[in-house]
């Protein structure tokens, strides 16, 4: 027999279908437990999905069942759910706790946010380098992240590392200056090429995975309009119920693993560390980009 219940959030009553359904069986997380975790995550997650086009991944029968990406807003949708039209797609704007819990009840287990912002000129508010391992278990990923952070720091650029929640790490640089996505791709290519040349046994900028061997791909191409990133604090549909977690550089140098951060310990983590990304100062990359452009003209 299928069970249903209801919850009232910010004055909106919502149905919870199959609250006892196991979404992450190994972690023992039911749909109701998941919704409770989303409440705790919401002040952090919503900060990075608000004002962006949302792509979700739905797992109606839990992480081991069939899944599908959803860009168009699911129908029917409650009146409190806001949407944004882009081309022929009506995206959900994930900007409130009721919307988050509505999506959670639909078994949306991952939330991926666009780099471009809703209704604003196409200029990024952050620059992102994605360090993507070529193998499922990559013990060197934090070493790679630390080397990338050190390179940026040597250029006078402060950055924040973030686990993808899967196997990789993303290096995020909040921006204080208005730059184009193409300018930042040029800078990303420079950084990737430098790392691959300096550390050829660790990094590559080879796009084809079959040609990377065991190297870690410095993906500077993902940061572009229409593309998405696993939003900070999104859960991931993996056995360990991992969460995409912003880190401190001290944690990276200590060799933490992306698997260390998950729905079962995320509340304690947030109480202890807060959000390392929220207080990061915007960086002016124009001097570095100007220097690079001058160098290419010589």
Automatic annotation (TrEMBL):
Transmembrane segments: none annotated. Residues 30-276 form the DNA ligase D polymerase domain. InterPro entries: LigD_pol_dom (IPR014145), NHEJ_LigD (IPR052171). Pfam families: LigD_Prim-Pol (PF21686). Signal peptide: none annotated. It comes from the Bacteria. This is DNA ligase D polymerase domain-containing protein. The lineage of its organism: Bacteria, Bacillati, Bacillota, Bacilli, Bacillales.
